[in-house]
Amino acid sequence: MDISRPTPTSSHPPAQTPPQPRSQPASRPRTQARSRPGNLRILQNAVSVAILMATLFVAFPAGALSTGITDRLSLMLTPQPAQDVQVAPTEQTVLRIGIVAGHWGYDSGAVCTDGTTEVEVNLNLATLVQQKLTAFGYKVDLLEEFDSRLQGYQAVLLVSIHNDSCTYINDQATGFKVAASMSSRDPNRASRLTACLRDRYAQATGLPFHPGSITVDMTQYHSFNEIDPVTTAAIIETGFMNLDFAILTREPVRVADGIVAGIICYLNNENVASTPMP
After folding, report:
1. DSSP letter assigned to residue 115
2. Predicted TM-score (pTM) of this structure
3. Domain 96-267 is of which CATH architecture?
4. What does each C-alpha distance from 137 to 101, 176, 265 come to in angstroms?
């Protein structure tokens, strides 16, 4: 019921009704019939306001009632435009995703003996991920390592892509690792994003999860403290640039597919098999 809209009034005086003969008291029942709905409407309004006030005292803490109560009532009592069930895709409804190409715009990162640099591998993978997610209809920002846009960055998620050393360490130095931003407003979402990335990336690439080499540089990655806390974020090192060099440089599409699948898993709230931690 729209109680905020006043009843229109006329600038002309009401038409005069000629007096009725005493023998035809038909006007009295009509007058009474009109008054009943009006009285009922007033009663309904009073009940509605009482329910509304009771709801406000339950829903809002005592401090909130003392400040801003007029604004809250005005918002709740003002009719809002009807929302369509199906909303056409617009710039406002498209989900934004941030993809950081590790070391891009800053330095080379790891450098291999053949001249291949980590930043080249990272940027190639990040660009492929951006293209694939854009094809799915998402708005994707390709970001540098210390991109100025990262300050207060807001998106449904952000993933930073890196790789590990070109140097041979041992035969176990193969695989990928993922770390979440615990600065996120909702750590559960950050944990779910990393779970999706672990599961889908392992399936796509066949590489093992290598949690033993997750460093503080990942768990306290600088961008985690720069972006808006509302943005769920994670960092992935897609492999070691020694034992995993072939898949990282010769099968970048396969690697990118694993990252994209992990992101889609998170966005669609898909099931994730539990990953035993060593």
Report:
1. S
2. 0.67
3. 3-Layer(aba) Sandwich (3.40)
4. 20, 28, 15
